[in-house]
Amino acid sequence: MTVFMTHKIVIFDTTLRDGEQSPGMSMNLEEKLLVAETLDAMGVDVIEAGFAQASDGDFEAVRAIAGRIKNSVVCSLARAKSGDIERAAEAIKPAKQGRIHTFMSTSEIHLTHQYRIDQNACLEMIKDSVTLARKFTDNVEWSAMDATRTEKSFLACAVEMAIKCGATTINLPDTVGYATPDDYGQLIKYIIENAKGADKIILSTHCQNDLGLATANSLAAIRNGARQIECTINGIGERAGNTALEEVVMAIKTRADMYPYKVDIDTTHIMRASRLVQNITGALVQVNKAIVGANAFAHESGIHQDGVLKHAGTYEIMTPESVGLLKSNLVMGKHSGRHAFKDKIKQLGFELGDNALEDAFTRFKLLADKKKDIYDEDIVALLDSESRREDAIQLESLHITCGTVGPQTAMLALRVGGEIRRATVEGNGPVDATYNAICALVPHVASLKLYQVSAITQGMDAQAEVTIRLETPEGRIINGNGANIDTLVASALAYINALCKLQSLQARETLVP
Ligand code: KIV
Predict the structure, then answer these.
(1) What is the pTM of this model?
(2) Is 4's pLDDT higher than 60?
(3) Fold of 3-281
């Protein structure tokens, strides 16, 4: 039986590589490990953990993930350069199962203007890079960058070369998001029919979302013989993003009549993964986003509500539970006990040791004193703030004087690496005063580019969630977020979160020339 006739679809998640390399999405080592463990628990087949040669920090992250992950294959990206491939091989060494993913552009426009080489030289680069990668592992993926704008007959030659040299997965990326479902499906079919050996390896999709067609293109590809989908949580990725894992997986599961394939994803982990990536990157999921948006399972119209109450299937094609959204997310209040709290944390997919659980419970009680109803989202925010307790900068106290008569003043105390620093600073409004105080206590060159507040849940006593974006003079974007019942405390926490990320990024990053 040829590979493309099997029914298993390999889910290849590139949240930590394609996702992480897009503006404002950078994650620190602990955050990457957390995401990787979540993907592993969810049943993702391959985790692209990073681009080992990009920086020492990326190398360390791929290596740490490779050492930690139990089930998924851990993969590193590498350009068609020996240094990249050797570094990727070194980074994936601790993995139970590792993969090197090497790539080369194949389109005329890339070869002429970016690489300044002809097609023969391109074939030589493919030969050398795949052959070298195979010396380190027998699990080698080769990608034809800009495949969808490549002359088809040359693409078939390039694919043949990569297969001949030992690539076991061939990826045909729609790098610029130019394809449509019809032509992408035809391209996959063309390669299976015209590139020798293509029916014996796994063909893969990697669709950017510039025209909003990434999910549709990926699905068209598998109907035409592709057996791996590259995707990211929440669809984060370069420019308009990548194929959203939750969309392709739920489309395959929900429309098994159209897509009679097997995906080994435990979909009940989807919401947790989505929230985790949202919290870490600060990239808010739009409310009407398919599967994971806040409104994805909300029914507002009277007719729909009436139908759903009588029979959920009248207006729901998937159950909220199938993606990990609990039916009633009104959880607890101040009378809820330790046991109920522990159960809820487990239901939400978190695992805490005894001490961490006790700390989280104390904070839950403090929150419950201020807020009558505690929702799942409140608990997720609380656990998120627990995970920051080891951060180098901690908020000790904040007192604001504000109102109609300025200037507004912030009295702030921060713990910076164990030392308490205090400042009283004025500003044009309470947020400005708070941020001026943070800048006075922890001087840095990045400037504030975005500040946004939303309510985590409904109700007058909802916690505020603040997302901010800093930009360094070199154009590096860092997001931070913070949640609190007090919007100004949430604002301070968001800024501190971004500063901690900035500091750890600067500390770990020695860019490779
Ligand atoms: O978009 C692209 O072409 C890529 C490849 C390196 C897979 O990200």
Answers:
(1) 0.81
(2) no
(3) TIM Barrel (3.20.20)
